[in-house]
């Protein structure tokens, strides 16, 4: 039973995500380290897709983590650190882009397109309900004769 518990604990330990943070990056002040981790989780790794610099093992992500910590040690506020990173790498560095400026188009476009699509679909269904019912007309005598001739062959 001990062996099974040990194997299960080992499997869970191996399967859990390991932090990309190396021990030499840690700050001595726990409050500053907590702020750095929070900021790092909001910033996108420029090498990896949709991965924060806190989770990434890329060299650039490590450099960005060190830069965030240097800015915090220098006395910058969280907003100043974020502004510095955005100024340096662009707004793409934010995992959650702002809703200001041209980005408002991106935030509004999805719901607007859904509303337009629902309107078009609703209009189509409404017009089909108002359309006159089709009447079944049989084949004309000429068409029936041609069909019979084709079926005989």
Please explain how this structure is put together:
- This protein has 153 residues and is mostly helical.
- It folds into 2 domains: 15-93, Helicase, Ruva Protein, domain 3 (Orthogonal Bundle), CATH 1.10.8; 99-130.
- Helix content is 61%, strand content 0%.
- The chain has 6 helices and no strands.
- The radius of gyration is 32 Å and the shape is elongated.
- Mean pLDDT is 83; it is low at 13-18.
Strand pairing plus helix content: what structural class? mainly alpha
In total, how many beta strands? 0
Strand-residue fraction?
A: under 5%
Number of helices: 6
SSE sequence, one letter per element: HHHHHH
Describe the secondary-structure layout.
Blueprint: H1 2-15, H2 30-42, H3 59-73, H4 78-89, H5 103-130, H6 141-152
Helix pairs in contact: 2-3
Question: How would you sum up this structure in a few lines?
Answer:
The chain is mainly α. Helix content is 61%, strand content 0%. The protein contains six helices and no strands.
What labels describe this entry?
mainly alpha, Helicase, Ruva Protein, domain 3, 0% strand, 2 domains, 153 residues
